[in-house]
Write a structure and sequence with these properties.
By secondary structure, the chain is an alpha/beta fold. It has 13 helices and 15 strands.
């Protein structure tokens, strides 16, 4: 199969779809890999590294899109990239369509087959291709939030770990999944007082056992969320509804009751955000203030640490890339119901029910397009 790796063009995005090690793996399986020049230069992966691994270097994105049968990216295709996609071409990347109708419309118009990392599932009920970026984003959310709390950044001047004789900073994490758990690891590591809210009693029990008495676990009722958010120095929004829009759990009118200089970090911003006042920002201009509360809503937080993020992502995407490349898309789908769950757009139709619900578009089941012997899970 001819596989293409364009350079990411989203603002402040330095990750790359395939590292040279991944290219070598594909090359040794007999595939042709085409990499846009300087696609990995910002994480220390040079054109010469890709060539040594077996790739051919192309001068621009159009040449990559025109040549490849499958495009491997990191972030959702920007409008100019969507217009370079062609009918039947496979796109494998993060899409986050629930909050991006324009992208959905452009992907439908292209009639490509778009598979989203974030909706591929596994046997354990998890989202394995989202997990490593969720780990990075969870840990990074505390790093970013702690920075925002510094007075020169407009924060309240709180050191999360405090010092002897002075209160620790209060961190509230809404959502006990991969993001929330990794945020808790970092916040506790900094010495903060950490409270985790989640709606799953089973998950709260697991967290209590995992962290023992270092973490406070609270059921995420509306009243409890309000109570703990209003008393927090740093709030991390870490909720996820796979494929669908994030619920708005922190209300606009709460902000005026929070301490000035408190910080909200919305890791769910790719899915529309879980705070009513959230709007996407960039690493170049990451924050804004409403009612004295700092909002950090960068839509690609792992992009701030692109080398760590790119290598972690490749570890989990490569088995699926190899499966599609070695077997062909139809055969790969027939062998893996979890990959079927990654189908978001195909032949001009939305093929994931949660995405269709979020965008208020018609849903077409994948087995109406492919002759599938497996069922999505």
């Amino acid at each position: 199969m001819r596989i293409g790796i364009p350079k990411e063009i989203k603002t402040n995005e330095s990750r790359v779809g395939l590292t040279p090690d991944s290219v070598r793996e594909l090359f040794e399986h007999g595939h042709e890999i085409f990499v846009e020049t300087n696609a990995g230069v910002e994480i220390g992966c040079l054109d010469t590294d890709y060539q040594a691994a077996g790739a051919k270097i192309l001068p621009d994105a159009k040449a990559v899109f025109d040549t490849a049968e499958m495009i491997i990216k990191v972030k959702e295709p920007q409008p100019d990239e969507c217009k370079m996609l062609s009918e039947g071409q496979i796109l494998f990347t993060y899409l986050h369509l629930a909050a991006d109708k324009l992208q959905a419309d452009l992907l439908k118009e292209s009639k490509c087959t778009a598979i989203a990392y974030e909706t591929v599932t596994d046997n354990f009920g998890g989202l394995p291709l989202l997990a490593p970026m969720s780990e990075v984003a969870g840990r990074f959310s505390i790093q970013a939030g702690a920075r925002c709390l510094e007075r020169p950044q407009g924060g309240s001047g709180i050191l999360l770990g405090g010092v002897p004789g002075v209160d620790k900073g209060k961190v509230v994490i809404i959502g006990g999944g991969v993001v929330g758990t990794n945020a808790a690891v970092m916040a506790l590591g900094k010495g903060a007082h950490v409270t985790m809210l989640d709606r799953s009693s089973r998950r709260l029990s697991e967290l209590s056992l995992e962290f023992r008495d270092t973490l406070d676990t609270i059921y995420a009722s509306a009243a409890n969320i309000e109570r703990y958010v209003l008393d927090a120095d740093l709030v991390v929004g870490a909720v996820l509804v796979p494929g669908d829009s994030a619920p708005k759990l922190v209300k606009r009118d709460w902000l005026s009751k929070m301490r000035p200089g408190s910080v909200l970090v919305d890791v769910a911003i790719d899915q529309g955000g879980c705070f009513e006042t959230s709007k996407p920002t960039t690493h170049q201009d990451p924050t804004y203030i409403i009612d004295g509360v700092i909002h950090y809503c960068v839509a690609n937080m792992p992009g701030a640490v692109p080398r760590t993020s790119a290598f972690a992502l490749n570890n989990v995407t490569m088995p699926h890339v190899l499966s599609i490349a070695n077997l062909g898309l139809s055969n790969a789908l027939n062998r893996d119901s979890h990959l079927v769950n990654g189908l978001n757009v195909c032949e001009g139709a939305i093929t994931h029910p949660a995405v269709a619900h979020a965008l208020k578009m018609d849903y077409v089941a994948p087995d109406k397009i492919f002759n599938l012997k497996v069922e999505s899970v």
